[in-house]
Amino acid sequence: MNSFKDIVTVSKKLNLLYVEDNEDVRKATLYFLEEFFDNITIATNGTEGFDQFYSTNIERNRTHPIHLIITDINMPLESGLEMSKRIRELDEQIPILILSAYSDTNYFLESISLGIDGYILKPIQMNQFIKVLNKVITKINNEISLKNNLNLLQQY
Q1: Which pLDDT tens digit goes with each residue over 54-69?
Q2: Which of 41, 74, 80, 118 is deepest in the core (most CB within 10 A)?
Q3: Taking the model in full, what pTM does it have?
Q4: Per the structure, how many domains does the chain have?
Q5: Which residues pair with residue 18 across a beta bridge?
């Protein structure tokens, strides 16, 4: 994907799970994210985020699956990293982006060990977000192509 328009066209078709506990931050970030995503599911903590992912992607047999997760780190009940770890146990391929004001080395290291697909610092910088989103869209498109090719091979 090369152009901003191409990225937005593809991202509009994706279902996003956005997990953020702070209402003011959530509202401001949603305003930004709505430029890229038409379908956004919101959770206010990691436990709620996990439940949303589980009910949508596991229980409902992926009829309208969540394609991408963007989560804060520090939240009540369950952190974004704890939630990401539980989700990764169910689905190793789901793209997860961490959106945080924290630039602590320990968060980066734990994010790397969980296989997090990107780390975006608050406040969101458009260029950084576009680069990370482009990477995620490429990953999603590659997964779709792989599944389609595997289905074709199984048919033959």
Answers
A1: 988 877 656 678 999 9
A2: 80
A3: 0.86
A4: 1
A5: 42, 70
